[in-house]
Design a protein that fits this description.
The structure is a single chain. By secondary structure, the protein is of the alpha/beta class. The protein has two domains: 206 residues, Type I PLP-dependent aspartate aminotransferase-like (Major domain) (Aspartate Aminotransferase, domain 2); 135 residues, Aspartate Aminotransferase, domain 1, CATH 3.90.1150.10. It contains 18 helices and twelve strands. The strands form two sheets. A seven-stranded mixed beta sheet has the order 1-7-6-5-4-2-3, with helices on both faces. Strands 8-9-12-11-10 form a five-stranded mixed beta sheet. β5, α9 and β6 form a beta-alpha-beta unit. α2 runs antiparallel to α4, α4 packs parallel to α11 and α5 crosses α10.
Amino acid sequence: MLDDMNLNDILPRHDREAEGGSSTRAVHGGTKRRKAFNSLTNPVVQTATYTFRDTEELIDFMERKTWGDGDDREEYGRYGNPTVSAVERKLAALDGGDDAVLYASGMAAITSVLLTILPSGAHIVMTDDCYRRTRQFCQTFLKRLGIETTVVPMGDYDALEAAIIPRKTRIIISESPTNPYLRVADLERIASIGKSRRVMTMIDSTFATPVNQRALEWGIDLVIHSATKYLSGHNDILAGVVVGKGDHIKALRDARGVLGGIVDPNAAYLLDRGLKTLGVRVGQQNSTALAVARYLERHPAVERVWYPGLASHPDHAVAAEQMSGFGGVVTFEVKGDLKTTSQFIDRMRIPYIAPSLGGVESLIEQPALMSYYEKTTEERLELGIKDNLVRFAVGIEDTDDIIADLEQALRVVDTNPHKLRLEDQWELRFRS
């Protein structure tokens, strides 16, 4: 909060980072007051390589005599870029970390962290509601390197601690909120377990954003975001970021130069532009999603609603304690089968049928078809994915318009269990 402080006292002067609330940091955090050519926005430095004036300058650079002078220079684009560095500073300021490292996608961020910190023979403990591609990487690709993964039920902290193998478990991985059931992890408890057992903790906070939840403040070691989602906010780039303490991030940045997952400077520029409206967008999405969740919970055509802002959600209490907003995704079950749920989705006019979330456009999907199409109903149920499950990622459209759209689309669902289908009515008349 700015309170009575003079604005000039909190905005950045040259190398000083912005303080204040999330929206102030989203606009000014980590940004130099005066930029190249006196540009207001951070310029796009579109280069793959960097030049040196002479051999003396090259030697000074190699001996790090010129590092830290604010020039953000490198020798080659895979190691860094001034546009990318500016966005990394802003992301670190937003999440309250010492530093941040930006990657070409959210999955590049996750895989790079694990490949960097895990030796052969290490062990991972992961909650079962993590993103399925994260689970797939750990259980399939890392297994080839002799790294084992134990998956424990989300919210069972006794099972989580019991799964830790002394001197072998290196990291605890969870999401908060999770996909698609929006389970909210008790971050303080996870951090406490990690510290007491000397195990690193990492939270994927994509669904929350730094506006709604700052996991580092609860003691978590590393925070990951798919910046493709809310941070960018416009469904037009791929990017991922890891935020944490300086020594952790330095090791990840050094490894990125080897693994090669750096983001393109044009994508970094678009991410920077999207971040400036993060607080406004997320605030609107929080408000709309809560209104949608309350509406759906009362609707006779809806079996169940999963949203941490509702008292009916299993993690509502912990979400209310550690989150300032409950996010822009609402997951619910329609009273019907696979076909009925598809018909409901097809009747929706505002949201696009698409994966992903966090953009200004509303997106809707039936996970049974979008993410698990190749599996049978029985196989999906084993993973907790019902045929009638819907994930609705609200955008920034007017709340009343979204609710009206839901109202007309839900008419396809027959809420009268005694009403005969048209085919059954015709058969009875034919037989009579």
